[in-house]
Amino acid sequence: MRRLLLLLLLFLWRTAAGEVQSTAATQPPPSICVVCSCTRAAGGQWSVQCDNEDAVLEMTRGQVWPAQVRSIAVNHASLKSLPDLPAKQEVHTLSLAFNSLSSLPDHAFKDFDLEELNMDNNVLKDWRAEILQGNKNLKVLQLRRNDLQHFDWASIADLTQLRHLDLQDNYVANLTGQPLDLHELKSLNLRGNVLVDFPTETCSNLVRLEHLDLGNNKIPVVPECLQSHLGALQFLALDGNKISTVEGAAFTGLATLHTLVISNLADLKRVDRAALKGVSELQVFRCADNKQLESVDKTLFFMGEEKMQNDWKFKMIDLSGNGFKKIPNDLLPWTLLEFVDLQHNPWDCSCDAQWMVDSLLPTLYKINSSMLEEFRCATPAHLAPRRLVNWLNHDDKPFCKEPPGPETQVALLQSGSSQGMLIALTVIACVALALLVVGFVLQRRYDRQRRALATKMGRCRRPRNGDVRLTNPKFGI
């Protein structure tokens, strides 16, 4: 009897569950989902993705949103003001990117408890603390490609959970405000602004910052605050600034740094021999496209014999596109690298650079042969612009040979380029034949025109032999 009762209860439970599922399956989706893409997670929360202007019109109606909304994206909708968003505390991710928003009202997002806010690619001109009041749990703030001209650090003073701040491609000239307790901030992107400094007041409390991008600004020197306040930094980009000299110990204190970018510095002329002192964990070093940088000291990467042999950290080194004519053969332990790029430098392939063919070239070929495509000689003239890879595994010491004189060049031309001469003579013969044919056709056409003109303007007489001859003294016929 008890077993029968249990079976009956199980049957009733399954029947009720089936009816609930059937009702949920037949329940129409919220009306906003007609013009937007809606996705429902396993927990019943919705993600709504709107990428058209029709969605904004739909929002002006009544109950158009699902009951539980986790994520909302209204992008590419030509918004000039905030749309009618649902007053739901469950919304944690909001994106209003690629619109035309020029300003936001105070308490714009007071009805939310946001964790991520994306305002990329708008035309915002200012950012105030009042905009985000009530959203103390915000972790990601993206303001990329707007029209911000200054950024007051106080506008994010309450965002103590902020981990990622992106201000790339604005017009920020300075960072104002007092030091903040942004102890959770791990990524700060300031690339593509017009900053002339990264002040100590800004970075003094960024104790957990791991990623800092200051590229494409107008900073004239390596900021001092890097040396003493950013002990957790792992990535640093200073490319595209106005830096002319990287002084010794410029990055002291960045013991955890693994990627350093000092490329595309139009004014860079010198990197001090001790510039990398203390950067013991560096793995990726990009110092490329600095046209005025003509040399680096042979001890730039020297960390001590024991360090170099037993605990070498460098994996990737990019020295391409600089003004290097020569480099020391002991600049790097070449065989310990996983990637190295020396292309697009004006290399002087004289005898004292023969080591590049003898030992460096085979090593680079093994590491990555594609990095030899533009590894070329710029001088002397008889070797330019040949690629060094042409002499791979050659034993004839090409850089130490005397340049060929005029007689040698003639001999080489006669003996070593018969196939080329044959091709050249064939081309010349074809061109001459074509010119002859064209000349013949033009001469025939000219003769016909003269006869026609003589017929029109001259007179005709029959000579003794019976032929008709056209004559006109004016034209000499």
What does this entry look like structurally?
- The chain is of the alpha/beta class.
- The protein is built from eight helices and 22 strands.
- The strands form five sheets. It has a 14-stranded mixed beta sheet with strand order 1-2-3-4-5-6-8-10-11-12-14-16-17-18. A two-stranded parallel ribbon has the order 7-9.
- The protein is flat and about 90 Å long.
- Name the helicity range: 10-25%
Q: Quick check: average pLDDT?
A: 83
Q: Strands across the major sheet, in which order?
A: 1-2-3-4-5-6-8-10-11-12-14-16-17-18
Number of helices: 8
Written as H for each helix and E for each strand, in order along the chain, the element string is HEEHEEEEEEEEHEHEEEEEHEEEHEHHEE
**Structural class of the helices, strands and pairings?**
alpha/beta
What is the CA–CA distance across the termini? Answer: 137 Å
Uncertain spans: 19-26, 408-417, 459-477
Global Rg: 38 Å
